[in-house]
Amino acid sequence: MGSTPQPRRGNTRQRIQDVALELFAEQGYEKTSLREIAERLDVTKAALYYHFKTKEDILVGIFDDLNRPVEELIEWGREQPRTLETKKEILRRYGEALTSAAPLFRFMQENQATVRDLSIGMTIKDRVVALVDLVKEPDAPLADQVRSFTALFAMHAGVFALKDAEGSPEEKRAAVLEVAVDLVTRAHDAQPAE
Asked: Mean pLDDT for the chain?
């Protein structure tokens, strides 16, 4: 959580996304221009336009690429039985997805108002709702719904809030996962046996 993931290597499209995300994080989305992105890449704006017409197109591309594991997790989770082990596995995999996409989630955390106004804002909300639905019981009492919701947001907060805390990134991820699992376990165990 405290370490900075390596930039994705590869094609020009990925390089554009990596540089744009760096600039968005440094300066904010609103204050970053396509010209600055092109200059940082040492390419012309025309070369940049070949891949992306707008900053939002770049951000949507970043979101789609880095958040694909979350989509796959939701699909997988919907096919699994609603057991405590499945819920724990969803949390574990979600933690891995957050770690892999830490720069994107950091950007989204720091630019919530901007993200909410962009096309990806509703998609993000829908994905969070889908994840909460996978770790809570359909008829769970309100307190257990809050526990399930809080478990996911504890994982989000852990990416950012613990960056200056003592411990290695692995220890921090393990602690956040432990807390999330405790919350979901408590909510799951409170459900009446069938």
From this structure: 86
